[in-house]
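Worked problem 6 (solution included).
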Amino acid sequence: MTIVKVDLKSTPYHIHIKPGLLQDIPDMLAPFARNGRLLFILDSNVEKHVWPALKRQCEAASLILETFVLPVGEGAKSWDHLEHLTDWLLSHHTERGDSIVALGGGVVGDITGFAAHILKRGCGFIQIPTTLLAQVDSSVGGKTAINSKAGKNLIGAFHQPAMVLIDPEVLVSLPPRELAAGIAEVVKYGLIDDAEFFDWCESNMQQFMAGDLVIRSEAITRSVSAKARIVAEDEKELTGKRALLNLGHTFGHALEAETGFSDRLLHGEGVACGMGLAFRYSARLGLCSEDAAQRISELLARADLPTTLKQAGCDVDGQKLVDHMLHDKKMSGGTLPFLLARGIGETFLSADVDLADVAEFLNEERAR
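Solution. The predicted structure is:
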């Protein structure tokens, strides 16, 4: 088993990574079970593909299980579902000493973590991510949230999990499109500040897509190690370091908003297209080479990820996408910081991007 520490001063915790880890989970969860009881939050896909085996193992360990099942998709991250979830937790007499277990993808982790944060002013929770995107990104770092009509993740809080348990074997149940969406977040870590890892992704993409467990485990480990390092340096995004993790997200969230935060465009697909746009815009500004931008698009295309507006299903006026960006939670003093790049592994935060120029660039991109 590989263990990565998220070395926060206030709430340090560990990420456990191991193929077949699901078999060990009852023993690992037992210390967190108050009076032998655990509260699991999952979605209907996980209930079908992952939960039956884990339920049997937990029951064999004499754990008492309570489950709340959410619908699949971003629509579950809403006020209505948050209300139902918190009411359910209260009806089950959840105490601050309970540990709420998020078993699922990023949506499940986000709403469960937020519910744990607000319930009785803070309950413990544990992340067991079952999608690649959640394993390498959303389960680590303590960002929890729901969506609103104004935009994505605008209502939320920082609430760190007690631990994160990652089993790469559960990825075999993912549809190819869901798996690819997570690859965007893996590639992101190479683009931020690790060009060698980007090279590794280029060399190993075929084996990763084919299901090589050694390659998948290494990709997950290197990704969460990178995120753990950045989160430890800037837990609540106060210094600008953690903002680097949002590479591709400013463009990506605008694309998601335009497609209604639906399965028309998955989050990872939006991030992939957003990263392609960020590097092409950087090239347009003369910050990085066209070759670097092309390499990124080619690698993402090998994972069947969109890198153009048309591929993302967002062939719309550039100003419309910029208008979505104005709801971004990173807006400060009327300025929207942008993540740009001087090359692969050389991402930086820019606070002086002209949004009118961004709109013009997006209109030019419609021709691709």
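Discussion: The longest helix spans residues 213-233.
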